[in-house]
Amino acid sequence: MATFNTLAVGFVLKGTERSYLTMKTASGKIFYLDGIRGLAAFCVFLHHFGLAFHPAYFNGVMADSHLSGWDVWYGKSVFSFLTSGSFCVHIFFILSGYVLSRKYFKTEDVNVLVAAAQKRYLRLYIPVGVTIVLAYILMISGAYFNVAAGAITHSEDWLGSFWLMEHPFREFLKSLLYGTMLLGNNSFDTTLWTMSIELFGSMLVFALLALTHNTRRKLISFLVFGLVLILINKTLYTCFVLGIALNYVERNLEKVKKYSNLVIVILMMSAGLLLGSYHEGHIEGTIYDKLPAGILALKNTFHILGGFLFILSVMLSTRLQAFFSLRPLRFLGLVSFSLYLIHPLVIGSFSSFLFLQLHEAIGYNLAVLFVFVLTTLLVLWLSNLMAIHIDLKGMRFSGRFFEKHFKTPDK
Length: 411
What we know:
The protein is mainly α and 411 residues long. It has one domain (28-405). 72% of the residues lie in helices and 0% in strands. Helix 2 packs across helix 16, helix 2 packs across helix 17 (327-334) and helix 5 (85-107) crosses helix 11. It contains 19 helices and no strands. It has helices at residues 2-12, 31-53, 56-59, 70-76, 85-107, 110-140, 146-153, 168-183, 194-211, 218-231, 235-251, 253-258, 262-276, 293-296, 302-315, 318-324, 327-334, 336-362, 364-405.
C-alpha cells in the first residue's frame, strides 16, 4: 500500500500532470472505472508473470509444477479469475465501449463521434509505437534473457518463444508501420495482439452510434448486432457493444437500483468472477468439466458475460464503487495502458536476468518471489514514467493534431 501511495504522490506532483489523479467527477471522470481498469491491467501482469515462472498453473501439467502441485490446483480452481488474462481483456473492451460512447449519450452530438474517431488512431499508436521501439532496442542490444530463463522455468513454449525472429529489422518496420495496429502483430510485445481489436472496436462504437443517431429503439439494435457478432464468432467485438449498452444502465441507474439489493449484487459479482475463471486452454478437473455440452458450446461468451456482470455489479453498489475508487487502484488505472504495454518487456529482460542470477544461490521459489517484488516495483515505476511522458502527452498531442488538421473552423 505504501508503495502505491508513494508512486501516486510522485505522479501527482509532476507539474501540470498534477490534476491527472485529482480530477473531480464533475469533470466527467468516474473514479471507480479507473480502479477496475487498473486492477485488470495488474492481473494481466500477474498472468504473464505466472506464465513465465509458474506455467503449470496455466497448462495444468504436473511435471511443470514448482509448487508441489499447488500451482496446478490454483489454475483449476474458481480463484483463477485473479490471473485470467482473457477475462481481463474482455473487461478492457467492455469499458472501452462504455467510455467511448459515454460523451455521445451525454450530448447526443454526432460531432463528438467524429472528433473521437479522428483522434483514436494516433492516441493509441503513440504509446504502442514507443513500446515497439523500446522492445526492438532491447532485442538488438542483447538485453533479453527469456530463452535461458524459460528453459529452467519450463516455460519454453511461452517465455522462451519471444524475440526470436530471423529478420528483426524487417519485422520491426512491419510492426511499427502497420502490422500491430492493423493486423494485431505482437512479435515485439505479447500484449499487442489486442491493439487492432481495440482500434477497430473503437471505430465500431463510433459507427454504430452514428448509424443509429435519431433512430428509436437503439438499445435493441445494439443488442441484435451484438448477437450477430457472437453468431459469426467475432465475440471480442461484442464487448464493445455491451459497453455501449451500459450507458442505458447509467441513464436509468436509480430505477435499476430499485430492483437490486446487496444479495443481488453479490450474486452478480460472484457469477461474473466464476465465469471469469473459465480456462479456455483446458477444463479437465475444473467445475466446467461437468457442464453439459450445450452450455459448453457457449464457452466463447463466458468471459464476455462475466466481465459485463462484474462491471454491472460495481455500477449498482456504492460500496464496490468506493473500493475501486481507492487511491492505489485509481493510480493503477491511470497508468494501466502503460503497465499493460511495458510489463512483458520487463519480464523478458530484467526479470529473466535476475532469476538466472539467483535461482541456484537461493532456490527456485525464493528467487521467483524476490524477482516478483522487484519486477512489480520496476514495472510500476516505468509505467508511471510512461504514463506521464508518453501516454498523457500523446493524448494531448492527438487532440492538438486533430484541432489543427481535421477540425472544421467555427463559423
